[in-house]
Amino acid sequence: MSGASFNRLSALSHTLQKQFTSKRVSVGVIGSGNWGTAIAKICGENAEAHPELFHPQVHMWMYEENVEHLGETRKLTEIFNSTHENIKYLKGVQCPSNVYANPDIRDVGARSDVLIWVLPHQFVVRVCDQLKGHLKKDAVAISCIKGVSVSADRVRLFSDIIQERTGMYCGVLSGANIASEVAKEKFCETTIGYDPDNSVNPLYTPNTIRSVFNRPYFRVQVVKDVPGVALGGALKNIVAVAAGIIDGLELGDNTKSAIMRIGLAEMQKFGAMFFDCDRLTMSEESCGIADLITTCLGGRNRKCAVAFVKTGKPMHVLENELLNGQKLQGAATAKEVHEFLEHQNKVDEFPLFKAVYNIVFKNLPPNKLLEAI
Ligand SMILES: NC(=O)C1=CN([C@@H]2O[C@H](COP(=O)(O)OP(=O)(O)OC[C@H]3O[C@@H](n4cnc5c(N)ncnc54)[C@H](O)[C@@H]3O)[C@@H](O)[C@H]2O)C=CC1
Ligand SMILES: O=C(CO)COP(=O)(O)O
């Protein structure tokens, strides 16, 4: 078992419940895209189910935009707060009425004890800067962001960036969780990386954090290996692009399985080489192997990579054409990881990552993928 696993501990202890009676935890969500809205739905359901633990309302920061609705142009927040449906990013899913779409990011930050970050990784740094000075002193953060950030010669996890820029301790949630399926309450598992030894607030135990997210259809496992959880979610997006290339070339399931196996090995090698991750986190937990499988079968990165092979259009064009405002992470992550590996003089030790980068950004023909690995 990877790291220390907490989820087999019993549900919240009596003592903890008593602590919460005096102070109910306010949960806030930063982001309201496809996954952001699904996560807010889960948190809203738990706030309703555990009124002794949680503040009844969950504020979800919604990046304001105008959308066409029933023949009128209206603000997305107004539509969400009257219909409880995010008609742009999670159409057809009803959220509980205690989830409130708040366009004021600082207000969401200021009222939250547990602040969940679920936005495309491109926007994280700007959002951190907007929130600085507008957060509760003892708040903790959980990042559901899948990606890494590269600056100069460093590769960094978004949980570390959030922690450094805001001062909040930041754990990570990541798993085999295609948002549209989770939102329809189809059973899945997820992993939270949370290290209570490093959290500044002893009130927020692993069980507290688990109870924010755990639902009968969304089973949470908590481990201590925070970098392992974060890297699994980021790196599998590169492998999903490779899987989409294989599907675009119509090479079949055996070939795709080979890509997934090689991809998993590169993910584990990267984690061990640069972050001291536990290899087992990626091979045994939802955030590793299971997320890799689901994303290579049904994710957006795979879908756009299939179209990339079939149409020859660049990935950013396909992102705009196929995803209705949702964002791709795989191509950007392939580029960022490549830049980092170049700095480290290690590109050739990760042939699958290298091949994806060369195909997406350097015009290597997709049918050269297998030769390259
Ligand atoms: N969608 C999925 O199935 C899953 C996604 N994730 C991860 O969750 C994270 C968030 O993804 P999604 O919620 O799916 O987002 P998304 O792909 O639906 O992106 C759209 C979101 O970006 C926001 N946005 C657009 N321009 C912005 C700006 N300038 N500043 C701030 N926000 C802006 C939009 O308002 C919207 O909330 C990503 O790291 C993704 O990899 C993780 C698990 C599942
Ligand atoms: O991370 C995901 C599922 O766990 C979603 O992956 P995509 O961004 O490729 O859709």
UniProtKB/TrEMBL annotation:
Binding residues annotated for substrate, in chain numbering: K146, R300, N301
PANTHER family in UniProt: GLYCEROL-3-PHOSPHATE DEHYDROGENASE, GLYCEROL-3-PHOSPHATE DEHYDROGENASE [NAD(+)]-RELATED
Catalytic function, reaction form: sn-glycerol 3-phosphate + NAD(+) = dihydroxyacetone phosphate + NADH + H(+)
Domain Glycerol-3-phosphate dehydrogenase NAD-dependent N-terminal span(s) in chain numbering: 27-196
UniProt-listed Pfam families: NAD_Gly3P_dh_C (PF07479), NAD_Gly3P_dh_N (PF01210)
GO biological process, one term: glycerol biosynthetic process
Residue ranges occupied by any Glycerol-3-phosphate dehydrogenase NAD-dependent C-terminal domain in the UniProt entry: 225-370
Protein known as: Glycerol-3-phosphate dehydrogenase [NAD(+)]
EC numbers: 1.1.1.8
